[in-house]
Amino acid sequence: MNSYLQQTSFNFYCSGIYSGKIRFTDQVVMHAKVDTRRRTQMQENVLEAGAKYVLPLARIAEQLSIYTSAEWLGDEVVLENGDKYQKHITYQAEISGAERTSQVWAYRGGTALDIVTLDGEVIAFLTPNRYGIELIVKAGYEQLTPLALYAEPLLSQPEYGVNDLGAYLVPMRDGVKLATDLFLPEGLEPGTKVPTILVRTCYDRNGKKEIFMRWANKGYAVVSQDVRGRADSEGELIPFYNERDDGYDTIDWIIAQPWSDGKVGMWGASYLGYVVVAAATSGHPNLLAVVDEVNVGSPFVDTARKGGTLCSWPLLSWTLAQSVGTRTDFDIFGGITVDPEAAVDARPIRDIPQQMIGRTSGPWELWSQHPEYDDFWRNCTFTERGDQVKVPMYVISGWYDGDSPGVSETWRMLTEHDVKSRKIRLGAWEHGPNRARDLLGVSFGNDAVVYDYDISVLRWFDRFLKDIPNGIDQEPRASYYVVGENRWRTSEDWTPAEAVITPFYLGGNGRANSSLGDGRLAAEPEEHSAADTYIYNPADPVADSGEREPENMRKHELRSDIVVYTSEPLAERLTIAGELSAVIYAASTGLDTDWVVTLSDVNEQGDSIRLSNYIVRAKYRHGLEQPQLLVPGQVEQYDIFMQNIAHTFAAGHRVRFTVTSSSKFVAFPNTNTGNNPYEDAEAVIVQQTICHNHEYPSHIKLPVVPNC
Known about the structure:
By secondary structure, the protein is α+β, with helices and mostly antiparallel strands.
């Protein structure tokens, strides 16, 4: 390491808040913390091994000489360790009386670690994420980095320390007490009342404590609570069931406190996102702002019973991880200590927890007692009370978010009930959004990772909890990133107001089995089009990844039990953006079955990159309230939701739509018997028929937007 960098002390900022100093030595990383309450500078010590920072300080230390010896010139720089950087944006500021211009370099590859240079010299490192940018910068050069965005005049500033008042046990209406932490801004005038941001989590409120308390630095009370049955809270976790009422009761407790001004906002992501949407359906009059990221949807839409099926690995891994104790076992959740393949293949389904973790799972057992949509599931379905939602809601997700069905469900609810202040932001993001610019071989633009992610969240709370006229509610309702075009667009609605819903019809000569078949996709239904058939064997299900990611489906599409419909090469690029759906006319020789539909982009080399898919159970074709077994061989119409997307098909590429009957890592394969799926030991091989002619015009509906 060169002597210059050994002598350099970097200022460390988290979400725009000064968090101490960082200094690199040959052996260790030195960290001088800031006391969170008094905001006083502490003495320098070796950085703790378990420090909970997103910015990879140890990696920076190891590679520092590589970063500083590189020539930061041109449009792209490849470092000697193979890291690739591209010229991104610039910042200008007056430094020591002179106008200076910095250069931000965007990291390409994995999780973003961007670099800022000034005249070819490294002055800052930063990692954006959903909670805010973590950044180290040479003192005095802050305004030449994305920290400049936090200086927006109408944005709440970090003017306060944090007074950690510790834990309270807050009683719910049934007497169960929930462990609840309270953080207040330190330095308020006596008697000052402040708005509150509430977070309710199933993952132990201590896990993200340092992150959530940062809102207190900016003038908010922060209340962080374990949901019932988790971490230090009393009661039993019944996923989804109690979140509406517990949210309401917690808000009641907040507004009764002497420091509360009566205004409450909520933030949540994933299951925490379900929690905030459920609270919104309580209609509590003091809930005035909600930020909902990548939210889990209602059970029959997104989780336990996705599309009416019985969800396999995504839900099973989560449920097992919650069932070994009161704190989540993330090694189970991540598929480390429980083998996903073994888990989804185990039978009977009801006994899988006992086989995998050696004990029963309360939620799994309870769900197995409710194999059909009943009052239990109605209480878990937030759209059953969508008419109660009045709160301004900011929805955030992305094309590779596995819970995007829940996000779409939420947005449909807000639209149906015309919630006035609703906003949506959709990026080329995963369930952990705003992380990387490349995913499974698909490359996005440098601006796919944004620097204002947490700033927009704070602006939402500022507008509706502090009444700051920052204009966020006057901006276009929808902001979305178009993959392939690789740029952001805005619209007055989502699906974009300018989108034209355009049908693409299935056709062929009756041999659409696999990508080698004759299945066609066209703008008009074919005059003479023969139905396609395939054999579905529950013992041999399709084993795609089960994740919502740009997986190459090419190898799967060689199976004879997938019928494939492909357009001619496009003469010009085609851009779609919005909510998708499909209408298929199909028959089965079984009493029940599943249908899996997928949209993909096929390039000149034959790679078939999945864009959107979904799965539905046939018995619910008339609605969840009206399950009806099939008449074998009878053609039925299925209206199928598909996950949202914004994507440009390049000229020469082809549009592909496929139908099959299984996706083992999404849902346990349907046995085709119509029996209770938790206990069914019988499986029947069936013949499936997909019809496509003038009488049965099977098609996919694509929201086509103008190219520009």
